[in-house]
Amino acid sequence: QAQQALTVAEAGLSQSRQGVVTSQTSVDRAQVDLNTAQRELKRQTELVESGVSSRFEYDAARDRLEQAQVALRTAQAQLQQQRISVEESKARVNQQKVSVRDAQIGVQRARTGVASSEARVNQQQAILRGQSSQRSKATQLSPLTGVVADIPARQGQFALANLTSTPLMTIADMSTINVEVNVDETEIGNVEAGQVAKVKIDALGEKEVEGVVTQKNPLAISKSDTSGGGLQNRVNVNEAKEFKVIIELKDLPNDVRDSLKPGLTATATITTSTKQNVMAVPLQAIVEKAPSPTPTPVQGQAPPAPTEKPKDIKGVFVLEGKKVKFVPVETGITGESDIEIVSGLQPTMEVITGPSRVLRTLKENDTVQKQTKKPGEGDKAEEKK
C-alpha cells in the first residue's frame, strides 16, 4: 500500500512538472503578445501625432496593450502556482519514500514475529494433542440432538457408569418447540386444536412468532396451583380455574430458534374466530345501560310477579342531526380494537365514540357538537352543549 502511494505521488510530481513547462510556454507567449502590443501602441501614437491615424485606432491599440499585460500577469501567476505544486509533489514523494522504508521494516519485523508464533503454535499443538487424548477418555456422547436443559451433576461428584440414579445432564429435543399457556375457564370453550396463535416470548422482546394449538387439557387447575395440576389440587370449587393449552411454534427463523431455551416465559394470543366483511365499531363505542324501569301498577291491580334482575342493554350512541340517540345492538366476535355488530345498526348511521367515562354521561336527545379527530390525537367523544 505504501509503494502504491509512492507511485501515485511520483506520477503527481511528473504531472506538476509538465504543468510548469506548459505555464512557462504561456508566459513566453504572453510576453511576445505584450511586446507586440507595445510596439503597435507606439506606432499608433506617432501616427496620431502626425495626423495620419485616427483616435479610434489609437484607443484600440492601447486596449490591446492592456489586455496583453493582463494575460502576462495571469500566465505568470499560473506559472508560480505550478512551481508551488511541484514543490508540494516533491514533499509528498519524499514522505511516501519514508513510508515505504517504514513499511519494509514493519514487514521484516512481522516475518520475524510469524516465525516465533509458528514455533509457539507447534508447541501448543503438542500440548493440545495430549489434552485431547485425555479428554476423549472422559467424553460421553448424547444419544440425541438437543439443548442441555439441566445439569444435576456437580463438580467433584463421582459419575459412575451404568448408575442411573446419578444422571449427568438432561437434554431437551428442540426440533419441535411447544409453549404451555394457561387459559381462563371463561375463555376455554372458544379454544380448539388447530387454531392459530401469536406467541410473544419475553426473551425476544416485542417480536411475535406464529403457533398452532395442538392440545387442550380437559382438567382444570386452580390459578394458585404451581405444582402442575392434579385432581387432589382441585378441591376448592370456589377458586378461579384455568386450563393448560399446548401451542406448537411453526416456521421459526433460525435466529429465533437459536434464542429459545426451555423454561422461558411466554404469553399467547389465540385467534378463536375470524370473519370478513362484517360491520364493526370500536370497542369503546359500546355502552351498557340499565333497562327502563317497570311501570307502577294501577291502583287495585296486583303487582307483577318478581322476576330475575333484568340484564343491562348493550348498544351504541348514534348522531341524528345534532341529537344523541341510543340504539340497542347485538354484538358478535371481539377483535383487538373492534367488535362485530350483528344487528341493530345501519351502515348509514354515524356512531359516537370516545372514552367510556364520557359516553356513560350521555343521555337520549342530548345536543352534541361534532368534533374531527386530528392526526396524532386520541379518540374524543362529541361534547355536550
Written account of the structure:
The chain has four domains: 2-132, Helix Hairpins, CATH 1.10.287; 142-175, no CATH class; 178-270, Efflux pump adaptor protein, beta barrel domain (Elongation Factor Tu (Ef-tu), domain 3); 280-292 and 309-384, conserved putative lor/sdh protein from methanococcus maripaludis s2 fold. Helices cover 37% and strands 22% of the residues. The protein contains four helices and 15 strands. It has a five-stranded antiparallel sheet, with no helix packed on it. Strands 8-13-12 form a three-stranded antiparallel sheet, with no helix packed on it. Helix 1 (2-50) runs antiparallel to helix 2 (55-136).
Strand order of the largest sheet: 3-6-5-4-7
Report the major sheet.
Answer: 5 strands, antiparallel
Share of residues in strands: 15-25%
Helix content: 25-40%
Kindly provide the name of the CATH class of the largest domain.
Answer: Mainly Alpha
Number of strands: 15
Order of helices and strands: HHEEEEEEHEEEEEEEHEE
Number of helices: 4
